[in-house]
Amino acid sequence: ARELREHLYQILVAAHREQTAPKVALDAIALEVRRAHTARNFVATDASGAVKHSWLSSSSPEVPLHACALAVETLLVAADHSRIRKCCASDCEVYFIDTSKARRRQWCSMQNCGNREKQRRWRATAE
Predict the structure, then answer these.
(1) Which helix (H) or strand (E) holds 68?
(2) Cα separations in angstroms, 107 against 8, 11, 41, 97, 123
(3) Which residues have C-beta within 8 Å of that of residue 100, sequence separation ≥ 6?
(4) What is the Cα–Cα distance from 8 to 21, expressed in whole angstroms?
(5) Distances (CA, A) of 66 to 26, 39, 61, 70, 83
(6) I need a surface site. Which of 6, 29, 30, 59 has the fewest CB within 10 A?
(7) C-alpha dihedral sign at 62, 67, 71, 74
(8) What are phi and psi of 80, to 5 degrees?
(9) pTM, rounded to two decimals
């Protein structure tokens, strides 16, 4: 899971810098996504013909990793990339999806990074 997170981070950094994503990171994520897809199956939910995904082995310790890999796939393939932003706090490296109406969100968390950054700015003007 940590490796998956690091590979995703490398891709997001490259996108933020308007560079090509590292092939090693893309290949590693693709491998995990393939594993996740092979760990799922379709099952009928009721007599109406509706189906859903189900894990082949729901007690497998790899299910959380598979779920993360599928979420990463959705982020990279289906998300609005113009809304993926890097936190503006000087001491934060987090990327987030800006879901604000005005698309002006600056921090990954107003309670943490936003508050600290505003305090830094206030102290700089008060000195």
Answers:
(1) helix 63-78
(2) 19, 20, 38, 10, 19
(3) none
(4) 10
(5) 16, 8, 10, 6, 25
(6) 59
(7) positive
(8) -75, 100
(9) 0.83
